[in-house]
Amino acid sequence: MATTLELAKQLETLRHRLGEAYDQTRSAARKQELDRLDRKLGTELVRLISIRIDDAGEEYAAATAALKAANRELKAAQDEAARLGEALQRVARALDLIARVVAL
């Protein structure tokens, strides 16, 4: 079972990886998408800070797993522009799951 600390670590890793991807991409459209995802991540982080999280729930486990997958995908996509689009979709899905955890 994932813990609150694990979720926090995955969120921090995601923020770092988004920044790396932003710095490495030359595409203006990709930079806009990365910026949008980073803003969404920031919003969810603020919301998470303000609540007590139940880390035993199904939604929490799904969100943590999605964050891990998104982080792996972003790391793998660093040198491959084609994979970056897939990685960004995975990040967006992970952030949607985080929003669900916050809403619980």
Would you give an account of this structure?
With 104 residues, this protein is mostly helical. It has one domain (4-103). It is built from 4 helices and no strands. Helix 1 packs antiparallel against helix 2 and helix 3 (58-76) runs antiparallel to helix 4. The longest helix is centred in the last third of the chain and has 23 residues, at 81-103. The mean pLDDT is 82.
Uncertain segments of ≥5 residues (pLDDT<50)? none
Overall number of strands: 0
Mean pLDDT: 82
**SSE order, one letter for each helix or strand:** HHHH
* Count of DSSP-assigned helices: 4
* Main sheet summary: none
In percent, how helical is the residue content?
Answer: over 70%
Beta strand %: under 5%
Name the overall outline: elongated
Radius of gyration: 13 Å
- State the distance separating the first and last CA atoms: 18 Å
Structural classification? mainly alpha
Query: In the residues, how many domains can be counted?
Result: 1
Short structural summary:
This protein has 104 residues and is an all-alpha fold.
Strand and helix layout:
Blueprint: H1 4-24, H2 28-49, H3 58-76, H4 81-103
Helix pairs in contact: 1-2, 1-3, 2-4, 3-4
Characteristic terms for this protein:
single chain, 104 residues, mainly alpha, 4 helices, elongated
